């Protein structure tokens, strides 16, 4: 279910991926120069093209941005957020299986984070951190 921020503008669908290591660490990327909110940290992803399934968009974006291939991902949650420049509908997926090591293909910085310590964070990312902390705690406490 989506948290609706505004119904006045048609939202842009965005596929967002949370790469999660077995220890619960997640990958955050820094928005590059020239984009709105440049320098802010976010989970990687991008716009869904017309008629494109969201998971396919996520897989395409991860190849284009990070040079990795998502092997599996599960839908996690959805959030709508209105920024001054855009109204977005964010579709979050969690992936624990991918092929390759993330690379900076679009000149962005990225960092693996356990307890998220980078800032500033993109505003739509902030409310999800509490939920993510629960997932990370579960990952760290699981018995293999």
TrEMBL record:
Top enzyme class: hydrolase
Span of domain Nudix hydrolase: 10-135
Keyword Transmembrane helix on entry: no
InterPro entries attached to this UniProt entry: MutT-like, Nudix_hydrolase, NUDIX_hydrolase-like_dom_sf, NUDIX_hydrolase_CS, NUDIX_hydrolase_dom
A UniProt-annotated Pfam family: NUDIX
Needed co-factor(s): Mg(2+)
CDD domains, per database record: NUDIX_MutT_NudA_like
Keywords: DNA damage, DNA repair, DNA replication, Hydrolase, Magnesium, Metal-binding, Mutator protein
Enzyme Commission designation: 3.6.1.55
Molecular function in Gene Ontology: 8-oxo-7,8-dihydrodeoxyguanosine triphosphate pyrophosphatase activity; 8-oxo-7,8-dihydroguanosine triphosphate pyrophosphatase activity; 8-oxo-dGDP phosphatase activity; 8-oxo-GDP phosphatase activity; metal ion binding
Reactions catalysed, as given in the entry: 8-oxo-GTP + H2O = 8-oxo-GMP + diphosphate + H(+); 8-oxo-dGTP + H2O = 8-oxo-dGMP + diphosphate + H(+)
GO biological process: DNA repair; DNA replication
Gene3D superfamilies listed in its UniProt record: Nucleoside Triphosphate Pyrophosphohydrolase (3.90.79.10)
Family: Belongs to the Nudix hydrolase family.
Protein name listed in UniProt: 8-oxo-dGTP diphosphatase
Species, as recorded: Undibacterium jejuense
Highest classification ranks of the organism: Bacteria, Pseudomonadati, Pseudomonadota, Betaproteobacteria, Burkholderiales
């Amino acid at each position: 279910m989506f948290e609706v921020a505004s119904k006045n503008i048609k939202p842009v669908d965005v596929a967002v991926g949370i790469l999660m290591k077995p220890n619960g660490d997640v990958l955050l990327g820094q928005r590059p120069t020239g984009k709105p909110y440049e320098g802010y940290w976010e989970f990687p992803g991008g716009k869904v093209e017309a008629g494109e399934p969201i998971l396919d968009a996520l897989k395409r974006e991860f190849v284009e941005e990070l040079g990795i291939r998502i092997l599996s991902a599960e839908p996690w949650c959805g959030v709508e957020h209105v920024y001054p420049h855009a109204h977005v509908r964010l579709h979050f997926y969690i992936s624990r299986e991918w092929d390759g090591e993330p690379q900076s293909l679009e000149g962005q910085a990225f960092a693996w984070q356990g307890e998220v310590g980078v800032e500033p964070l993109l505003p739509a990312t902030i409310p999800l951190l509490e939920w993510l902390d629960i997932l990370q705690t579960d990952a760290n406490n699981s018995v293999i």
